């Protein structure tokens, strides 16, 4: 029997023993609500929720759960001639979603930016007979074992001829983005790079809900890893976080602004 944390959507197997605390939410990068830890069966979510689809480009779709569930991130289905990639994951895998994805060619690989979006990756992998690629730095945050999970530990991993995973770190040690070498290039960033409400800048945080920033040297390292990566469009973790032009330029400018603000804060403190 699978149960989900209502706050973050992480799934736990309670077939042999109950679970009382969500390790993901007890970490300082997430939170346990004032009302306390709450759980819901996976079957209950599937019966009361559905997934909303949006097509962003000819071969790029996003899907998010409605009504809102847990963190409320979106996942992406990226179609390529060599196979489809599911980027990031959402908890709700309902019959309609299975039918639509199958009609679009299934899933050849699943890749996830960081542990907050692991959710029910094990069930998605089983449904589509797809391997799941996670960075080894975040292996301790896997709450359910699965033979489909593959850990990689380099700075980059080629999934398909036009699809590469890049470890940026930051929010988590294994924080990952996906680069799609298509035309001028696309970056799927999760919230490793957090797109701001105006979709004209990004920011960098160690903990978003608790508003704990990253150190300047960490942000420098993240953006240096992207310096030679070609991308013009960028899609973030949440609905509306779409940069359709100048994304690389915006990321570099945002990192300089972020670092400048940290230096100003340090001067004021002194």
Mind telling me the C-alpha Rg? 18 Å
- Number of distinct beta strands: 20
Question: Class by helix and strand content?
Answer: alpha+beta
* Poorly predicted sequence stretches spanning 5 or more consecutive residues: none
Mean pLDDT: 96
Alpha plus pi helix count: 6
Tell the overall outline: globular
C-alpha end-to-end distance: 55 Å
Q: What is the helix/strand order?
A: EEHEHEEEEHEHEEEEEEEEEEHEEH
**Sheet of most strands:** 7 strands, mixed
- Strand neighbour order, sheet with most strands: 4-5-6-7-8-9-10
DSSP strand content: 25-35%
The proportion of residues forming helix, as a percent range, comes to: 10-25%
Overview of this structure, please?
23% of the residues lie in helices and 30% in strands. It is an alpha+beta fold and 270 residues long. The protein is globular and about 50 Å long. The N and C termini lie far apart (55 Å).
Q: What attributes characterize this protein structure?
A:
alpha+beta; seven-stranded mixed β-sheet; six-stranded mixed β-sheet
In terms of topology, how is this protein built?
Blueprint: E1 2-5, E2 11-13, H1 23-26, E3 39-41, H2 42-48, E4 50-57, E5 60-66, E6 75-80, E7 83-87, H3 95-103, E8 109-111, H4 121-128, E9 132-135, E10 149-152, E11 156-160, E12 163-167, E13 176-180, E14 186-190, E15 194-195, E16 202-203, E17 205-207, E18 212-213, H5 216-226, E19 233-236, E20 242-243, H6 247-269
Parallel strand pairs: 7-8, 8-9, 9-10, 14-19
Antiparallel strand pairs: 1-2, 1-3, 4-5, 5-6, 6-7, 11-12, 12-13, 13-14, 15-16, 17-18, 19-20
């Amino acid at each position: 029997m699978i149960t989900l944390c209502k706050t973050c959507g992480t799934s736990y197997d309670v077939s042999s023993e109950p679970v009382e605390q969500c390790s993901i939410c007890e970490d300082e990068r997430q939170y346990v609500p004032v009302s306390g830890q709450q759980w819901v069966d996976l079957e209950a979510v599937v019966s009361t929720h559905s997934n909303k689809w949006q097509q962003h480009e000819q071969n790029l779709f996003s899907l998010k759960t409605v009504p809102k569930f847990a963190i409320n991130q979106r996942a992406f289905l990226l179609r390529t001639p060599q196979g489809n990639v599911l980027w990031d994951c959402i908890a709700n895998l309902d019959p309609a979603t299975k039918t639509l994805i199958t009609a679009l060619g299934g899933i050849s690989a699943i890749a996830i930016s960081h542990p907050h979006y692991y959710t029910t990756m094990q069930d998605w992998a089983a449904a589509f007979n797809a391997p799941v690629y996670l960075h080894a730095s975040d292996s301790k945050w896997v709450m359910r074992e699965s033979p489909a999970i593959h850990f990689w530990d380099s700075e980059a991993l080629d999934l398909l001829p036009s699809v590469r995973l890049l470890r940026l770190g930051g929010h988590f040690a294994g924080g990952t983005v996906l680069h799609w070498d298509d035309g001028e290039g696309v970056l799927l960033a999760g919230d490793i790079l957090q797109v701001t409400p105006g979709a004209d800048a990004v920011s960098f945080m160690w903990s978003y809900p608790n508003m704990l920033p990253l150190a300047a040297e960490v942000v420098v390292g993240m953006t240096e890893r992207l310096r030679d990566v070609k991308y013009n469009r960028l899609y973030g973790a949440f609905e509306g976080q779409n940069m359709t032009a100048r994304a690389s330029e915006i990321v570099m400018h945002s990192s300089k602004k972020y670092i400048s603000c940290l230096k100003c804060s340090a001067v004021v403190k002194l």
